[in-house]
Each structure stands twice: as C-alpha cells, then as structure tokens.
Design a protein that fits this description.
The radius of gyration is 16 Å and the shape is globular. It is built from eight helices and ten strands. It has about 220 residues and is of the alpha/beta class. It has a single domain (about 5-220), classed as Aldolase class I (TIM Barrel), CATH 3.20.20.70. The strands form two sheets. It has an eight-stranded parallel barrel, surrounded by seven helices. It has a two-stranded antiparallel sheet with strand order 9-10.
Length: about 220
C-alpha cells in the first residue's frame, strides 16, 4: 500500500478532510525562508495534538541546529520531524537519541545524480527520506512547496539505493501522481500545492478525492 501525505495543512478542517480520504500523514509547516503553507507554532501544536491515532503529524522545520530542532519538537509535539534542509550542527543520531519515539525524515532535494550519493551517505541514520524539488543553494532558499517536478529517473535510482523508505514530493497532482508512482515506485507520495485552489490556497476536496483514488489504484 502506497502511503500519501497531505502537506501545508492550514487548519483542523483540512486535517479532517485529509484523514477522511485516507492520508497516512499531514504536514505542518513552521517558519521557512520561502514557500507556502507556513502556520503559527501555536496552530501547529494544536493540530499535532488533534491528529487521530494512526495518522502521523509531520513538523516541517528549516532549523539546522540539533538543540533548536529538539526544543521545537518538544514544544510542538509532532510525531515526525521533516528536516527540509541539511543539519549544520549535530547529527541525526543526536536527534534520535534525544527524541525517542519521534520519527526523523530527511528531505533530499533532487538536483542531479549527486543526490543519489547524498542518500547513500544517509544510510539508515533516519527513519525515511523525502525527495523534493527545492533549491537550498539559492540566496533565499527554496526548501519545498515549489510545485516543480524533478527528474524521476534519479528518484527511481534513489529508491533502489536507499536503505530506508522513500517518499516522493515535488509538483505532484491528480494529473501526474499515477505516472510518478509507476516511474519511481516510492514508499509514499507527498503533495501540497497540487491539491489547492483559489487565492487562499485552500485544500480542494475534489482534487483530494481524485488524488486519493489514483494512489489507491496504483497500490493494487
């Protein structure tokens, strides 16, 4: 069964909608240098504690120092930390030791074949890897929510090389998620902007229903 995570959750109504259509996880975005979906930490804490059993709450953090990441997770209470940038101090082992029971997911932004070596270097130091299409090398970093698709051939090579489950993100929508799953064969898929509509970028139930149906069909 291929999992799917609905990211950039804004409120409790969106949590409920994602869960109703079978999402295995919801993404709660803390402060970022750019990109959509950022919500206040008070809201993250409320939503993380309201997610039903069996559904993971992902705290997306751009923090790079392990003590700050540990303190943020303890303050907000999400079940999973999604590191959207590389660590500057400390290690994944430090995070796991300080936060037993909390899953650590490292984002790898697929920029070229060097991303395969980046995943190999991670080994099994994290619980999972999430492939996205950001540009952490820019002056104002892009660390997710770009709506861009990256090279799925590289993503497939990463899935084959990885020692832990791999989620695929980056420009996914009901229009391409079936092809993405067929090409990459990930453990799960992750979607933000591809399910949102209008100026307020609210979660679109019709798009979500179609997305969920395609993911389910691809799992059969």
């Amino acid at each position: 069964m291929i999992r799917f995570k609905v990211c950039c959750i804004l409120n409790q109504a969106e949590v409920n909608l994602a869960v109703r259509y079978g999402a295995s996880a919801v993404g709660l975005v803390s402060a970022m240098p750019s990109g959509p979906g950022v919500i206040a930490e008070d809201t993250i804490r409320e939503l993380a504690h309201a997610v039903p059993p069996g559904v993971d709450s992902f705290l997306l953090t751009s923090l790079r120092d392990t003590p700050a990441i540990i303190e943020q997770q303890r303050r907000l209470g999400a079940s999973t930390i999604q590191l959207v940038d590389s660590l500057a101090t400390g290690t994944h082992a430090d995070l796991r030791a300080a936060l037993p029971g909390v899953k650590i997911v490292q984002v790898v932004h697929v920029t070229g074949e060097e991303s395969i070596d980046e995943v190999r270097a991670l080994g099994d130091s994290v619980h999972a890897i999430l492939l996205d299409s950001g540009r952490p090398d820019l002056a104002v970093k892009e660390l997710g929510g770009t709506g861009r698709v990256h090279n799925w051939e590289i993503s497939r090579a990463i899935v084959e090389a990885a020692r832990v489950p791999v989620y695929l993100a980056g420009g996914l929508s009901p229009d391409n998620v079936g092809a993405a799953i067929a090409a990459v064969r990930p453990f799960g898929v992750d979607v933000c902007s591809g399910l949102r509509t209008g100026a307020a970028k609210e979660l679109d139930e019709r798009k979500l229903a179609t997305f969920a149906e395609i993911v389910h069909a691809a799992s059969l």
